[in-house]
Amino acid sequence: MSSKETGADSGIDWGGAPQCAKVVCEPSQLERTIDWKQGLAIAIGVPLLILPSIGYFASYLWSFAIIVWGLSVFQGFMQNLAYGELATTFPNASGLPGFAQNVFKGNGKEKYDKGKLIGGFSAWSYWFAWNPVLAIFAILVGSYLHGLIPALGGYSEYTISLVAGIVIFGALILINSRGLSSGATMGYILAFLSLAPLAVITFSPFASGDFMLSNITGSWLPTDWAWDLHHILILLGIFAMAQWSACAWETAAIYGPEYKKPSSDVPKALFSCGIVCLFTFILVQAAVTGTLGISGILDQPVSPMLPLAQAAMGPIGSYIAIIMLVAAMVLIIQTAYLGSARAMHSLATEGNLPRIFGRINKNGTPVFAMVIIGLFNLALISLGTPTAILAASAIGYVCANGISLFAYVKAKNNPRLAALDRPFKAPTGWKNVALMFGLFNLPLCLIGIVYLNSLEIGWTSTWIGFLVLGLYIPLWYYSQHENHVAQEPQSQAV
């Protein structure tokens, strides 16, 4: 139902557009309002996911972190060729959450369909992968503002981060409640404010001569590095965290139901964002390492971009960097916010979450889901450690990617699914590539991230990750009961 048909006024409509029967509220369909350039503008925040990991990766891998970023973006291209095909096979599916749910769902005759549970769990894992990005970057915003604005020195970082979260989350809900095209406009503005200065800061050491190749070639790996099981597991954990950043441009496909021409818009948005990521992840880590050296990065593990900004822009570099970084963080928060809200909407639409999470307003925005996600992340901010939240979130991401890649393999092998029209096709035999990367995610990267978590921050992050993922089971069973109750009046009428 369009906004004209509802006759609702502008602003946030908490219950707009859903069709309600008795006490059960049906989810509503998203509207096709954007093209591939607008989808790219929203997803373009993904390259900025490198910011919290520059120093962390260098502390473990030294200069080899550059290679890991390059390999991870390459992994993204391999995986996203499969996702691009799935996006055109299921044009109404919301990216990874929708693909797995469409492939694994059963015939609808069983009340508790195990295949549907698997697809829903993949979507829930994806939701958990993107959701904590809001808290991570709100904490980083608070940290940067606390350290560089003297007037805020009297307040704790937690207080500043909490206020920043309230302001940013609230503003994004208001802006995006007007429709996804408004989010795209916001993406254009934030991309200009963040990516342009990031490019200047990244390239300036090469132009000024501050970049020294010997800082990279002379320190490829830590002196105590050995290719034993311990270090291989660490490397797998790093790859799990790296793909959380460097492969995340698949989020361009999550707006599949909102592209005007999904068969052409999805691949264009997807791979345009991938090309930007390829250059960004490699060049940013290389510029920081080559300019500061490993010791310089370790002296600034949270904000290694600040010394580069000061060198490139002089005394005002820190303040310009703050504006850039805050804009960058708001941009990636918006990318994550919209992605996780649509994952929740997809789950509810497919009957894998309570239907209330599928409610949209008159502009086609799942505002209720956005509010719940915002409140959840305000609670996560209290953890205060971005790395711990990221590590827990990465557990969800490897699960989502692994199951989604297995879904691609099933979609190619199942005669009914294989017969579906595919306007965009990955190269012949790509199901074998998808299977290989699916197994790389599950179990290898999952084992690696759990092992790395145990070394770095104990078992808390891992238990939080599995607890949130496990929370899906009771929610799913409740939603199946809800669906069954909703279908009973229809069965009696027949």
Question: Based on DSSP secondary structure assignment, what is the total number of beta strands?
Answer: 2
What's the CATH C level? Mainly Alpha
Average pLDDT taken over every residue: 83
Rg from alpha-carbon coordinates:
22 Å
Largest sheet: 2 strands, antiparallel
Low-confidence stretches: 1-25
Would you write up a description of this structure?
The chain is mainly α and 494 residues long. The protein has a single domain (12-489), classed as Amino acid/polyamine transporter I (Up-down Bundle). The protein is 70% helix and 1% strand. It contains 20 helices and two strands. It has helices at residues 3-6, 36-43, 54-61, 64-89, 95-104, 114-130, 133-148, 157-176, 180-208, 214-217, 229-246, 262-299, 305-313, 317-349, 367-380, 386-413, 415-418, 430-456, 460-470, 472-493, and strands at 20-21, 24-25. Strands 1-2 form a two-stranded antiparallel ribbon. A hairpin with a 2-residue loop joins β1 and β2. The radius of gyration is 22 Å and the shape is globular.
Topology:
Elements: H1 3-6, E1 20-21, E2 24-25, H2 36-43, H3 54-61, H4 64-89, H5 95-104, H6 114-130, H7 133-148, H8 157-176, H9 180-208, H10 214-217, H11 229-246, H12 262-299, H13 305-313, H14 317-349, H15 367-380, H16 386-413, H17 415-418, H18 430-456, H19 460-470, H20 472-493
Antiparallel strand pairs: 1-2
